[in-house]
Amino acid sequence: MVGKRTLTIVKPDAFNSGKGGQIVAHLEKAGFKIIASRVMRLTEAQAQAFYEVHRERPFFTALVRFMTSGKCMPIVLERADAVATLRKTIGATDPAEAEAGTVRKLYAESKERNAIHASDSDENAERESRFFFPESELV
Ligand code: CMP
Question: Distance between CA 119 and CA 84 in Å, rounded?
């Protein structure tokens, strides 16, 4: 899996406003294949666990509130150089700083309500994929 797969989440802002399909189409056009996907609403405990690395950051409480505010769509994606390519495809965390044509430039509202998540390393891609999907769905 390392090097070929990554995890994305279409976040509640984008999913709730009906942009999920367009975002998935954008990712497929960028060469990603969908390996696993689901629609779900994160519990507070799940959001806290997923973003554990940010627990001490000042935006943690707001981030958990936002990520539990509606349904989201975690997706495991596959293509060569998956982690780096997806991060380039979605653009900078803050849409104001994202390059033209990136997912966040096209669909995000703000640094917090930024439409989409992407794993930042192969190690986290694996951890985050297993957070949402059983091994049997990742073959
Ligand atoms: P994501 O890629 O999901 O990883 C952590 C998230 O925290 C990030 O996207 C943003 O949604 C959020 N985030 C990062 N920095 C800030 C910030 N300064 N203020 C608010 N939210 C932030």
Answer: 9
Domain assignment present for 36: yes
**pTM exceeds 0.90:** yes
Query: Considering its fold, how many domains does the chain have in total?
Result: 1
Flag whether 131 is in a domain. Answer: yes
What tokens were used for 8? Answer: 């994305």
**59 CA distance to ligand 1 centroid (A)?**
7
Structural domain harbouring 10: 5-41+71-137
**Tens digits of pLDDT across the chain (139 residues):** 458 999 999 999 999 999 999 999 999 999 999 999 999 999 999 999 999 999 999 999 999 999 999 999 999 999 999 999 999 999 999 999 999 999 999 999 999 999 999 999 999 999 999 999 999 999 9
Rounded Cα distance between 89 and 92, Å, is: 9
Residues known to be catalytic:
117
> Which protein residue's CA is at the shortest distance from atom 10 of ligand 1?
112
